Amino acid sequence: NIYENGMLRNQFPTVTTNPNKLEQQARDSMEAKGFNFIFGGAGEHATMDANRLAFRQWKLIPRMLLPTSQRDLSVTLFGIEYSTPVLFAPVGAHCVFHADGECGVAEVAADLDITYIHSTAATASIEDAARANGNGPRWFQLYWPQNDEITLSLLNRASRSGYSTLVITLDTWSLGWRPANLDGGFVPFIKGVGDQAGFSDPVFRQQFKKNYGVEVEEDIISAAAEWNKDIFSGQAHTWEQLEFIKSHWSGPIVVKGIQHVDDARMALKMGMDGIIVSNHGGRQVDGALGSLEALPEIVHAVGKDMTVLFDSGVRTGADIIKALCLGAKGVLIGRPWVYGLGICGKAGAKEVMMGLLADFDQTLGLTGIRSISQCNRSILRRITYGG
Ligand code: FNR
């Protein structure tokens, strides 16, 4: 349809389909603070660059004359069938990028039947996003608070609101050193404050009132500082403390931010159902490995015993296929649709994800793949000359 509209009707997409131009279009359309928060990685962006270079090191080897015109993109994760292995990555602070916010994205996710993952740092409440998502598939991402009562409150609310799977992000117990935000400022925990996953939490509100003598709305700055302190405390939990979460969450649990094989093994040992191999889009440790580099050895170590998902640096359909061929069972998309959201709201996020899915589907067919289970190393080659 995109081809037909462009070639025959002179109708072009609002958001560019060129992954290399998307960032610039967002920069041109958005307020600097919002754009910088999406764009900004840690340090000198060495890991962000490595995330892309890692994809360039692998090349697909297409097969011809195979019956691939009818394709089945469905996958089963934790016993549930999903129509595609692609997921929306958890991303906080949507209202800073566009007023459509998390509810707009949750609605788009349901329309496209792609899993929506609600962030603890969202600017919409857990309940409102669930309502907007309706019958769509949804997971909840936990930034693990220091305060157990708040943790339990978030888990209960997510469970009551129909979020099936819990994602615990391990790599952001303290925010990374992100010059674009440090220099340019950034206000996500203040805009849209009343609706936030955290600020709307009854336990957080109660404790805030007890300690400060006022409602959250009456002293937003202190509330934001308290909330940040609790979820980005600068103090990590321990592997053993995952027992606590396990005893309070009945669905599957996935830990996000795994890059080291030994951590993948620890996650398995602690009884996690899955891991997300991710470096948070190069936003945490600059100089860390490109995320795709870590994937093969982790799949080799634990892939038979637990579900391995992947993110960081995925920009094209071919990237999704490469990650699947290297053993990922699902692939999370971050910045691209967030830029779409910033450019023109939920319609932009939708265009980007539809485009990416179409590219993925088309490229699968052209590579000679009919179903996701056919993605394997036999159609990949590692090329070390770069480029
Ligand atoms: C994120 N990411 C993230 N992860 C998470 O677990 N909770 C969160 O609230 C956020 N928030 C967030 C905001 C923004 C603006 C970005 C870009 C990213 C990380 C995200 O889930 C994912 O790991 C990365 O986006 C993957 O990297 P790329 O592909 O976007 O470069």
TrEMBL record:
Residues annotated for FMN binding in this entry: 90-92, 119, 141, 169, 256, 278, 311-315, 334-335
Domain FMN hydroxy acid dehydrogenase positions: 11-385
Gene Ontology molecular function: FMN binding; oxidoreductase activity
Gene3D superfamilies membership: Aldolase class I (3.20.20.70)
Residues given in the record as glyoxylate binding sites: Y143, R178, H280, R283
Keywords: Flavoprotein, FMN, Oxidoreductase
Cross-referenced PROSITE patterns: FMN_HYDROXY_ACID_DH_1, FMN_HYDROXY_ACID_DH_2
Family from the record: Belongs to the FMN-dependent alpha-hydroxy acid dehydrogenase family.
Protein name in UniProt: FMN hydroxy acid dehydrogenase domain-containing protein
Organism for this UniProt entry: Oidiodendron maius (strain Zn)
